[in-house]
Amino acid sequence: MRYDEAIGHSTNLVGIPVGLLASDSFNDHPLALHISGVREMNPSLFTMLAEAERLEEAAEAFYLYMVAMFGLDPEQNEGGGGGKGAVRRYRSSFLRLLKGWGYDSNGPEGAVLKGWVESRFGLFPTFHKHPITLKSQAWIGYVEEKMSSRFHNNAIYAQLDLLYEFSQWALARFAAPGQTHIRLYRGVNDFDEHRLVARLDKRTCVLRMNSLASFTSLRDVAECFGDTVLEADVPVCKVAFFNTLLPTHPLKGEGEFLVIGGDLKVTAAYW
Question: Residue 145: which H helix or E strand, with range?
């Protein structure tokens, strides 16, 4: 395999070899994933979560913890408030990244989210505005955007670490207890963002997904985003965020899931 075809780095922070993590075999037999040290360094959060009887209670506890840890007050998120003449301070927020992703997954916020996946899970993006190979102009543009100081002034990767771990906790406790996979859908008009790894039959194939990709739990919503609907059984451990995790967030309304990439077996339905 040439270096520019590598699927990711040689190491990551989840303790599973990157080649295995990115493989379709891992998806068939997934293992629990945890970002090293996150739960151990935030024991008070998970103590509070354990006391929640409903997902809504857990979500409130999570949000209050994030506000306390990272100063995510509304005036700091969006730069408002404070009265006339007040100095406005901007602090990066995971909610601001989700909002930007909702507008355009290939924008600067999308680059930061893909950079977090690269840092924690070791997976390279396959697409950011254009198909990516290492050392290509598309790769350079992605690196410039993911490293922008605009989004790295408030431990943004640490925020995303906690969001992932909370998502995994909430899936196991409330949203998908006992499940290893969730059936999800993605609408596409072309395959520019996906690389064909293997064709299994006329409708089934293995695609190399982008390092982070949007899916939905609602098939009719997927149909609105393209004339081809990809159906996949996604491992629960690869869900970085899901629609009902928080009571309010910028991705509401489309049943959206953010899924860690790699090779994924999909069935395509054409309209």
Answer: helix 137-146
Q: What's the CA gap between 59 and 68, in Å, rounded? A: 14
135-182 pLDDT, tens digit each: 789 999 999 999 988 888 899 999 999 999 999 999 999 999 999 999
Number of domains in the chain: 1
Q: How far apart are CA 221 and CA 265, in angstroms?
A: 20
Evaluate whether 217 touches 243 at the Cβ level (below 8 Å). Answer: yes
Q: Decide: 8 and 22 in contact? Cβ < 8 Å.
A: yes
Three-state SS at 132: coil
* Four-residue CA torsion sign, 263, 266, 270, 271: negative
Identify each DSSP E strand in 94-133 by its residue range: 127-128, 130-131
Which residues fall within 8 angstroms of residue 37, CB to CB, at 6 or more apart? none
- Beta bridge pairs of residue 183: 233
Question: What distance in Å separates the CA atoms of residue 100 and residue 110, rounded to the nearest whole number?
Answer: 7
Burial level of 149, CB count in 10 A (0-12/13-18/19+)? Answer: exposed
pTM above 0.85, yes or no: yes
**Helix or strand or coil: residue 214?**
strand
Apex 260 CA angle, 121 and 10, nearest 5: 25
Residues 6+ apart with CB under 8 A from 156: 92, 93, 94, 97, 112, 116
